[in-house]
Amino acid sequence: xxxxxxxxxxxxxxxxxxxxxxxxxxxxxxxxxxxxxxxxxxxxxxxxxxxxxxxxxxxxxxxxxxxxxxxxxxxxxxxxxxxxxxxxxxxxxxxxxxxxxxxxxxxxxxxxxxxxxxxxxxxxxxxxxxxxxxxxxxxxxxxxxxxxxxxxxxxxxxxxxxxxxxxxxxxxxxxxxxxxxxxxxxxxxxxxxxxxxxxxxxxxxxxxxxxxxxxxxxxxxxxxxxxxxxxxxxxxxxxxxxxxxxxxxxxxxxxxxxxxxxxxxxxxxxxxxxxxxxxxxxxxxxxxxxxxxxxxxxxxxxxxxxxx
Length: 308
Known about the structure:
- This protein is mostly helical and 308 residues long.
- It has helices at residues 8-28, 31-52, 61-71, 79-93, 107-118, 120-124, 143-148, 155-160, 172-184, 190-209, 218-223, 227-234, 245-265, 272-289, 293-307, and strands at 4-5, 58-59.
- It has a two-stranded parallel ribbon with strand order 1-2.
- The chain starts with a strand and ends with a helix.
- The model is unreliable at 297-308 (pLDDT under 50).
Protein backbone atom coordinates (compact mmCIF):
# COMPACT_ATOMS: atom_id res chain seq x y z
CA UNK A 1 0.00 0.00 0.00
CA UNK A 2 1.29 3.45 -0.94
CA UNK A 3 1.95 5.75 2.02
CA UNK A 4 1.60 9.51 1.63
CA UNK A 5 3.56 12.20 3.42
CA UNK A 6 1.06 14.42 5.23
CA UNK A 7 1.16 17.99 3.95
CA UNK A 8 -1.70 20.20 5.23
CA UNK A 9 -0.84 23.05 2.84
CA UNK A 10 -1.17 20.73 -0.15
CA UNK A 11 -4.55 19.56 1.10
CA UNK A 12 -5.77 23.14 1.25
CA UNK A 13 -4.68 23.59 -2.35
CA UNK A 14 -6.69 20.50 -3.29
CA UNK A 15 -9.70 21.90 -1.45
CA UNK A 16 -9.42 25.07 -3.53
CA UNK A 17 -9.14 23.11 -6.79
CA UNK A 18 -11.95 20.64 -6.12
CA UNK A 19 -14.89 22.97 -7.02
CA UNK A 20 -13.17 23.74 -10.34
CA UNK A 21 -12.78 20.03 -11.01
CA UNK A 22 -16.47 19.48 -10.23
CA UNK A 23 -17.33 22.31 -12.64
CA UNK A 24 -15.34 20.58 -15.38
CA UNK A 25 -17.31 17.38 -14.76
CA UNK A 26 -20.55 19.33 -15.03
CA UNK A 27 -19.41 21.05 -18.25
CA UNK A 28 -17.66 18.20 -20.06
CA UNK A 29 -19.03 14.98 -18.64
CA UNK A 30 -17.68 11.78 -17.10
CA UNK A 31 -14.77 11.63 -19.52
CA UNK A 32 -13.07 14.16 -17.25
CA UNK A 33 -13.36 11.71 -14.35
CA UNK A 34 -11.73 8.86 -16.29
CA UNK A 35 -9.03 11.19 -17.57
CA UNK A 36 -8.39 12.19 -13.97
CA UNK A 37 -8.09 8.55 -12.88
CA UNK A 38 -5.31 7.98 -15.42
CA UNK A 39 -3.53 11.23 -14.60
CA UNK A 40 -3.58 10.70 -10.82
CA UNK A 41 -2.63 7.03 -11.04
CA UNK A 42 0.31 7.80 -13.31
CA UNK A 43 1.53 10.70 -11.18
CA UNK A 44 1.43 8.69 -7.95
CA UNK A 45 2.96 5.65 -9.64
CA UNK A 46 5.91 7.54 -11.11
CA UNK A 47 6.70 9.30 -7.83
CA UNK A 48 6.35 6.02 -5.93
CA UNK A 49 8.95 4.35 -8.16
CA UNK A 50 11.44 7.15 -7.55
CA UNK A 51 10.80 7.56 -3.83
CA UNK A 52 10.78 3.82 -3.07
CA UNK A 53 14.49 3.62 -3.81
CA UNK A 54 15.07 6.21 -1.09
CA UNK A 55 12.58 4.59 1.32
CA UNK A 56 10.50 7.78 1.35
CA UNK A 57 6.72 8.15 1.17
CA UNK A 58 4.91 9.73 -1.75
CA UNK A 59 4.21 13.42 -1.12
CA UNK A 60 0.66 14.76 -1.13
CA UNK A 61 2.08 17.49 -3.33
CA UNK A 62 1.98 15.04 -6.23
CA UNK A 63 -1.82 15.09 -5.97
CA UNK A 64 -1.80 18.86 -6.42
CA UNK A 65 0.51 18.53 -9.41
CA UNK A 66 -1.79 15.94 -10.95
CA UNK A 67 -4.86 18.12 -10.40
CA UNK A 68 -3.20 21.23 -11.84
CA UNK A 69 -2.00 19.25 -14.84
CA UNK A 70 -5.43 17.70 -15.38
CA UNK A 71 -7.24 21.04 -15.25
CA UNK A 72 -4.77 22.54 -17.74
CA UNK A 73 -5.66 19.98 -20.43
CA UNK A 74 -8.10 20.39 -23.33
CA UNK A 75 -11.32 18.41 -22.76
CA UNK A 76 -10.73 16.17 -25.78
CA UNK A 77 -7.07 15.29 -25.19
CA UNK A 78 -6.36 11.55 -25.69
CA UNK A 79 -5.69 9.60 -22.50
CA UNK A 80 -2.29 8.40 -23.70
CA UNK A 81 -1.12 11.98 -24.33
CA UNK A 82 -2.14 12.97 -20.80
CA UNK A 83 -0.34 9.94 -19.34
CA UNK A 84 2.88 10.82 -21.16
CA UNK A 85 2.63 14.44 -20.05
CA UNK A 86 2.12 13.83 -16.33
CA UNK A 87 4.77 11.08 -16.27
CA UNK A 88 7.28 13.43 -17.88
CA UNK A 89 6.34 16.27 -15.52
CA UNK A 90 6.80 14.20 -12.36
CA UNK A 91 9.97 12.45 -13.53
CA UNK A 92 11.82 15.33 -15.21
CA UNK A 93 10.20 18.32 -13.54
CA UNK A 94 10.48 17.04 -9.98
CA UNK A 95 12.16 13.72 -9.22
CA UNK A 96 15.37 14.30 -11.17
CA UNK A 97 16.01 17.24 -8.86
CA UNK A 98 15.61 15.11 -5.76
CA UNK A 99 11.85 15.08 -5.19
CA UNK A 100 9.55 17.38 -3.22
CA UNK A 101 11.02 20.72 -2.21
CA UNK A 102 13.93 20.58 -4.64
CA UNK A 103 12.31 21.13 -8.03
CA UNK A 104 13.35 24.28 -9.86
CA UNK A 105 10.41 24.29 -12.27
CA UNK A 106 6.70 23.74 -11.76
CA UNK A 107 6.19 20.01 -12.54
CA UNK A 108 2.64 20.45 -13.85
CA UNK A 109 3.81 23.10 -16.32
CA UNK A 110 6.81 20.99 -17.35
CA UNK A 111 4.49 18.11 -18.22
CA UNK A 112 1.97 20.30 -20.01
CA UNK A 113 4.56 22.09 -22.13
CA UNK A 114 6.19 18.79 -23.09
CA UNK A 115 3.01 17.47 -24.70
CA UNK A 116 2.06 20.97 -25.92
CA UNK A 117 5.21 21.05 -28.04
CA UNK A 118 5.38 17.33 -28.83
CA UNK A 119 1.71 16.80 -29.70
CA UNK A 120 0.47 20.27 -30.74
CA UNK A 121 -2.51 19.00 -32.72
CA UNK A 122 -4.00 17.36 -29.64
CA UNK A 123 -3.30 20.38 -27.42
CA UNK A 124 -4.39 23.26 -29.65
CA UNK A 125 -7.29 21.97 -31.75
CA UNK A 126 -10.75 20.53 -31.21
CA UNK A 127 -11.95 22.72 -28.34
CA UNK A 128 -15.38 21.67 -27.10
CA UNK A 129 -18.24 23.96 -26.17
CA UNK A 130 -19.26 23.20 -22.55
CA UNK A 131 -22.76 21.81 -22.11
CA UNK A 132 -24.64 20.10 -19.33
CA UNK A 133 -22.53 16.99 -18.55
CA UNK A 134 -20.85 17.22 -21.94
CA UNK A 135 -23.91 15.99 -23.84
CA UNK A 136 -23.31 18.13 -26.92
CA UNK A 137 -19.60 17.78 -27.70
CA UNK A 138 -19.69 20.43 -30.44
CA UNK A 139 -16.32 21.95 -31.30
CA UNK A 140 -16.01 25.71 -30.98
CA UNK A 141 -13.42 28.47 -31.03
CA UNK A 142 -11.93 29.69 -27.75
CA UNK A 143 -12.51 33.31 -26.64
CA UNK A 144 -8.95 34.24 -27.62
CA UNK A 145 -9.49 32.91 -31.14
CA UNK A 146 -12.75 34.84 -31.37
CA UNK A 147 -11.06 38.04 -30.18
CA UNK A 148 -8.24 37.63 -32.71
CA UNK A 149 -10.86 37.42 -35.45
CA UNK A 150 -12.14 40.81 -34.35
CA UNK A 151 -15.40 39.49 -32.91
CA UNK A 152 -16.89 40.08 -29.47
CA UNK A 153 -17.44 37.64 -26.64
CA UNK A 154 -20.09 37.39 -23.93
CA UNK A 155 -18.69 38.74 -20.65
CA UNK A 156 -21.14 36.83 -18.49
CA UNK A 157 -20.08 33.56 -20.12
CA UNK A 158 -16.44 34.49 -19.53
CA UNK A 159 -17.09 35.10 -15.85
CA UNK A 160 -19.20 31.99 -15.34
CA UNK A 161 -16.83 29.79 -17.36
CA UNK A 162 -19.40 28.79 -19.95
CA UNK A 163 -17.03 28.95 -22.90
CA UNK A 164 -14.48 26.62 -24.60
CA UNK A 165 -11.04 26.23 -23.07
CA UNK A 166 -8.94 23.97 -20.89
CA UNK A 167 -10.78 21.99 -18.24
CA UNK A 168 -10.05 24.35 -15.35
CA UNK A 169 -9.26 27.73 -16.85
CA UNK A 170 -12.80 28.91 -17.58
CA UNK A 171 -14.80 29.43 -14.33
CA UNK A 172 -13.44 32.83 -13.29
CA UNK A 173 -15.85 33.13 -10.35
CA UNK A 174 -14.61 29.84 -8.85
CA UNK A 175 -10.97 30.81 -9.37
CA UNK A 176 -11.58 34.12 -7.56
CA UNK A 177 -13.21 32.27 -4.65
CA UNK A 178 -10.24 29.88 -4.59
CA UNK A 179 -7.85 32.85 -4.48
CA UNK A 180 -9.70 34.31 -1.49
CA UNK A 181 -9.57 30.96 0.31
CA UNK A 182 -5.86 30.43 -0.40
CA UNK A 183 -4.97 33.93 0.80
CA UNK A 184 -7.19 33.68 3.88
CA UNK A 185 -5.64 30.34 4.89
CA UNK A 186 -2.14 31.67 4.08
CA UNK A 187 -1.66 28.83 1.61
CA UNK A 188 -0.66 31.16 -1.24
CA UNK A 189 1.01 34.56 -1.21
CA UNK A 190 -1.18 37.43 -2.37
CA UNK A 191 1.84 39.40 -3.64
CA UNK A 192 2.47 36.80 -6.32
CA UNK A 193 -1.14 36.95 -7.47
CA UNK A 194 -1.36 40.74 -7.49
CA UNK A 195 1.97 41.34 -9.25
CA UNK A 196 1.26 38.72 -11.91
CA UNK A 197 -2.29 39.76 -12.74
CA UNK A 198 -1.80 43.53 -12.51
CA UNK A 199 1.35 43.53 -14.67
CA UNK A 200 -0.43 41.40 -17.29
CA UNK A 201 -3.46 43.69 -17.19
CA UNK A 202 -1.37 46.86 -17.46
CA UNK A 203 0.66 45.64 -20.42
CA UNK A 204 -2.47 44.35 -22.17
CA UNK A 205 -4.07 47.78 -21.71
CA UNK A 206 -0.99 49.63 -23.00
CA UNK A 207 -0.81 47.45 -26.11
CA UNK A 208 -4.55 47.83 -26.68
CA UNK A 209 -4.50 51.61 -26.09
CA UNK A 210 -1.54 52.03 -28.45
CA UNK A 211 -3.31 50.04 -31.19
CA UNK A 212 -0.39 47.67 -31.48
CA UNK A 213 -0.84 45.04 -34.13
CA UNK A 214 -2.32 41.78 -32.76
CA UNK A 215 -3.15 43.47 -29.45
CA UNK A 216 -6.27 42.12 -27.77
CA UNK A 217 -9.04 44.23 -26.22
CA UNK A 218 -8.17 44.60 -22.55
CA UNK A 219 -11.22 43.53 -20.57
CA UNK A 220 -12.11 40.34 -22.45
CA UNK A 221 -8.42 39.46 -22.78
CA UNK A 222 -7.77 39.47 -19.02
CA UNK A 223 -10.81 37.26 -18.46
CA UNK A 224 -9.92 34.84 -21.28
CA UNK A 225 -7.40 32.07 -21.59
CA UNK A 226 -5.59 30.70 -18.57
CA UNK A 227 -4.36 34.01 -17.10
CA UNK A 228 -6.55 33.85 -14.01
CA UNK A 229 -5.87 30.14 -13.41
CA UNK A 230 -2.12 30.58 -13.80
CA UNK A 231 -2.10 33.63 -11.54
CA UNK A 232 -3.83 31.88 -8.65
CA UNK A 233 -2.46 28.34 -8.85
CA UNK A 234 0.76 28.31 -10.89
CA UNK A 235 2.54 31.57 -10.08
CA UNK A 236 2.03 30.92 -6.36
CA UNK A 237 3.61 27.44 -6.33
CA UNK A 238 5.83 27.80 -3.22
CA UNK A 239 8.77 25.63 -4.25
CA UNK A 240 9.55 27.19 -7.63
CA UNK A 241 8.64 30.76 -6.61
CA UNK A 242 11.04 33.13 -4.82
CA UNK A 243 10.93 33.45 -1.05
CA UNK A 244 11.74 37.12 -0.44
CA UNK A 245 9.08 39.83 -0.55
CA UNK A 246 10.72 42.09 -3.15
CA UNK A 247 11.60 39.07 -5.25
CA UNK A 248 7.94 38.04 -5.34
CA UNK A 249 6.88 41.35 -6.83
CA UNK A 250 9.52 41.20 -9.56
CA UNK A 251 8.79 37.52 -10.18
CA UNK A 252 5.10 38.24 -10.75
CA UNK A 253 5.93 41.07 -13.14
CA UNK A 254 8.24 38.77 -15.12
CA UNK A 255 5.45 36.22 -15.52
CA UNK A 256 2.78 38.79 -16.35
CA UNK A 257 4.86 40.65 -18.92
CA UNK A 258 6.31 37.51 -20.52
CA UNK A 259 2.90 35.91 -20.83
CA UNK A 260 1.31 38.92 -22.54
CA UNK A 261 4.23 39.30 -24.96
CA UNK A 262 4.14 35.63 -25.93
CA UNK A 263 0.34 35.46 -26.33
CA UNK A 264 0.35 38.68 -28.39
CA UNK A 265 3.34 38.35 -30.70
CA UNK A 266 4.17 34.64 -31.00
CA UNK A 267 2.52 31.74 -32.82
CA UNK A 268 1.40 30.28 -29.50
CA UNK A 269 -2.18 31.16 -28.64
CA UNK A 270 -1.38 31.11 -24.91
CA UNK A 271 1.93 32.17 -23.40
CA UNK A 272 1.35 31.52 -19.71
CA UNK A 273 2.98 28.11 -19.45
CA UNK A 274 6.13 29.50 -21.03
CA UNK A 275 5.90 32.56 -18.79
CA UNK A 276 5.80 30.40 -15.66
CA UNK A 277 8.96 28.54 -16.67
CA UNK A 278 10.68 31.84 -17.46
CA UNK A 279 9.73 33.09 -14.01
CA UNK A 280 10.92 29.83 -12.41
CA UNK A 281 14.29 30.33 -14.09
CA UNK A 282 14.75 33.76 -12.50
CA UNK A 283 13.36 32.90 -9.05
CA UNK A 284 16.63 31.64 -7.44
CA UNK A 285 18.58 34.53 -8.96
CA UNK A 286 16.10 37.08 -7.59
CA UNK A 287 16.43 35.70 -4.07
CA UNK A 288 20.20 35.73 -4.43
CA UNK A 289 20.47 39.31 -5.69
CA UNK A 290 17.83 40.97 -3.54
CA UNK A 291 18.74 41.43 0.11
CA UNK A 292 16.14 41.85 2.84
CA UNK A 293 16.31 44.95 5.04
CA UNK A 294 16.64 42.78 8.14
CA UNK A 295 19.69 41.08 6.67
CA UNK A 296 21.25 44.42 5.76
CA UNK A 297 20.67 45.83 9.25
CA UNK A 298 22.12 42.71 10.81
CA UNK A 299 25.24 42.99 8.64
CA UNK A 300 25.67 46.69 9.49
CA UNK A 301 25.33 45.99 13.20
CA UNK A 302 27.84 43.16 12.95
CA UNK A 303 30.32 45.41 11.14
CA UNK A 304 29.94 48.10 13.84
CA UNK A 305 30.62 45.54 16.56
CA UNK A 306 33.77 44.40 14.75
CA UNK A 307 34.98 48.00 14.38
CA UNK A 308 34.32 48.69 18.08
